[in-house]
Amino acid sequence: MELFELTIASQLAQAAASLMLAGFIALILRSRRRRYLLHLALAFAALAAYLAASAGALGLSQGGDPHGVLRLLFSLLALSLLFPHLIWLWLGFRGALRRTPLPRWRQRTLLASGVAVGIALAIAGHAMALQGHAVTANTLRLGLPYTIAGSIYLALAIGLFKARAVTGSGMQVNPLIAVSAFTAFGIHLLLIAGATTWVITQNTVIPYSQYIGLVGLVLLMAIAMSFVIWLLETEQQRAAAARHQARSAEQRLLYFRTHDPVTGLPNRRQIHELLSAELLKLRQDPTERLGILALGLHRYKLMGESMGWHRTEDMMRDLTRRIRRELPARFSLGRTGERDFVVLMPRIGKQTQAVEHAERILQRLRRPFEHQGRELFLKVSGGLSLAPDHATASVDLIRMAERAQLEAADLSDGLVVHRAAKAGTLPRDMLQIEAELRGAQRRGEFKLHYQPLISIRQRCITGFEALLRWEHPQRGLLNPAYFLQDASALGVLDDLEDQIFDQALQQLALWNQDLALPPVSVAINVSAQRFIQPDLAQTVVERCKNYDVMPSRVTLEITESSAIGDFEAGLETIRRLRQHGIKVSLDDFGTGYSALAHLQRLNIDYVKLDRSFILGIDQDERQLALTKAIVDLIHTLGIEVLAEGVETSTQLGHMIQCRVDYVQGFLLGKAQRAEDYRKTLETREITGF
C-alpha cells in the first residue's frame, strides 16, 4: 500500500472512531440534559468531519489536482472544522469541571473566530501553493494547525490533572488514564507537525512515517475509552451530589416544619407536640398543674412600618433572648405568630403560682430595652390557661390562652386568666361570633388587598396576590389570623370564599379591560376544605365566564397540607383545574410537610417558597447554598419558583442569584387596595429593583 493511501485510510478510521464517540455522547445527552455534553458531542463530530475532509484533500493532492478548486474546498472544510473542534472540546471540559457555562455571546465569538482562522489558513496556504511556495503552503495547512491542536490537547490534559475531577470521589478508575491519553494524543499531534515540517523542508521521507496515523488511531481509541469512563463517573458524581442536596433539603424542610425560622423557637406545630407530651406526664400526677401563657406584642405592625420588617425581625430575636432569660429552665418558649409567643409552664402547683410567674414575665418585658442604639418600650399583654382546670387537650388550652390574651389587649390589661364558661354560655358566645362574621360579610367589611408579584426576568409586575382583610369598625384592619379559624369552625368560610372569588375576579376584569394597563393575573388563596370539593374547578370557570376573565389569568394557591392531606383527591382537583387553564401554586413550601417527594406527582405550576428560606440568608452561606439547591431541584421538575418575604435589596440579590422566577415582599410592594397600584401599573416602575 502506498504511503498516502495508508495515511488516508488511517484518517478515515480515526474519523469513524471520532464519529462513534460523538454518537455515544449524544446518547448520554438524550437522558442527561447537560450543556457540556452537547459541546463534547459537537467537538468529536467536528473532529470526524475534519479528518474525513483532510483525507479527501490529501487524496486530491495525490490524484493530479493539487491546486484545484475542489482541493481548496476540502481544505477549507477541514480547517474551518478543526478550530471549532478544539473550541467545543475546551467548552465541554470547562462546563464539566466548573459547572459555570461561558456566556452564549462569548461562545459564538470564539467559534466564529475559530472558523475565520481556519478559512484564512486554508486560503493563505492555497495562495502560497499557487505561487510555488510549497513549504510555506504545507506549513500553513498542516504544520501550524497540528501544532495548535497538539498544544490545546496538552493544555486540556494539564487542566484535567489539576482539577482532579476523579480523585477522592470514590471512583475506581485512575484519573491518570484520561490525562495520559490526552497527553499522548497532544504529543502525537506535535510530532506530526514536526515530521511534516521536516519532510517539507528536507524533502526526505522519515522511515515508518506511514504508520504514524495508526498510532493516532490507537490513541484516539484510548481517549474514547477514558472519555466514556470519565463521563459515566462524572454523572455518578453529580447524581450522588444531587441526592445529598435532596437529603439536606429534606432535613432543612423538616426543621422549618417545627421551628420559627427567625428566632429558632418551636412553632405552633411543635408547641402542640411539646404540650401533648407534658399533658401525658400530668395524668400521672393529678396534684400538679400546667400553665399556658400566651404573649401578644402590641403595635407590631406600626413597628414594622417604622423600622422596616427586616429590623423588626432582628428586634424579635432580641426579645426572644430577653424572654428566655426570664424563664426557669423547665419552661418552654415558642413563637406561634409574628407578634405572638407561648410559654409552657409545667409543674407549677397552684393557680396563684402560675399567675405570679406570668406577672413576673410581663413586668420584666415592659421594661425598656436597647436595640441597635434605640430605647424601645414594648406593650405586651398575656392570657393564661391551666390544665387540668380549664381543659386537657393541647388545642383547647392554647386557644383559651390566646383568647384571654386578646381580651387583655382589648381591656388594656396586662394579664387575663381564662374564665371557665358556665353551662350554656359557650354556645351563645359562638353564636355571637357567627353573628359578627355574617354581619360584617353583609356590610361589606371584608375587603381584598393586593400584593404585587414581580417577574425577575421581565422586571415588572405580572400579577397580584389577593389578601383578605377585615375592616373592623372598632378594632381596625384585621388579618385573617384573627377570624379565619372561627369562620371555618362556624361554617362561614364557604360564603366568605365565594365573596373573595367575586371580588378578585371583578378586580382582575377591571385591570385587564383597561387598555392603559398591561395584562396581569391574580392569585387567590383556597382553604383546605374548599380545595377538596369536587366542583371547585367548575365553580371557578363559571365565575371567570361571569366576569369575562380568562382562566389562564387565575392562580389558586393551596397549602402543602391541602395538597397532601388527601393526595389522590388533590391530584384529581389539580388535574381538573389545569385542564381548564387555571394555574395552581403550592403556598408556604417548606413550612408544612417535606414535600420534595410529592412535587413530581402534584403537577403544579408554581412553588411559593416560604419567607423562612430568605430570612437570614445574607448571614448564612449554607442557607444560600441550600435555597439555591432547592430551587434547582424544583426547576428540574419543570415548576417555576416564587419567593415571598423579600424585604431588602440584599435578599433580592440572593433570590436573583438563586434563579427564582418571581419575587414578592415588603421591598417591592405592600398589600394595598387595588386603586393604590394603578399608577405603578401605568408607569411599570417598581421600587427595589
Mind sketching the topology for me?
Elements lengths: L2 H29 L3 H28 L6 H30 L5 H27 L3 H30 L12 H27 L9 H47 L9 H17 L5 E8 L2 H8 L1 H18 L5 E4 L4 E6 L5 H15 L3 E3 L2 E3 L3 E8 L6 H17 L4 E3 L7 H18 L3 E10 L4 E13 L3 E3 L5 H6 L3 H21 L7 E5 L2 H4 L4 H11 L7 E6 H6 L1 H13 L3 E7 L6 H7 L3 E4 L11 H16 L3 E5 L4 H9 L4 E3 L13 H6 L6
Parallel strand pairs: 6-7, 9-11, 11-12, 12-13, 13-14, 14-15, 15-16
Antiparallel strand pairs: 1-3, 1-6, 2-3, 4-5, 8-9, 8-16, 9-10
Approximate helicity band:
55-70%
Q: Give the percentage of residues in beta strands.
A: 5-15%
The number of E-state strands comes to: 16
Structural class: alpha/beta
- What general outline do the C-alpha atoms trace? elongated
Q: What is the multimeric organization of the chains shown?
A: single chain
- What's the CATH architecture name of the largest domain? Up-down Bundle
Unreliable runs: 165-173, 422-428
Count of DSSP helices?
Answer: 23
The whole-number mean of residue pLDDT values reads 79
Structural domain count: 3
Largest sheet, if any?
A: 8 strands, mixed, barrel
CATH class type of the largest domain: Mainly Alpha
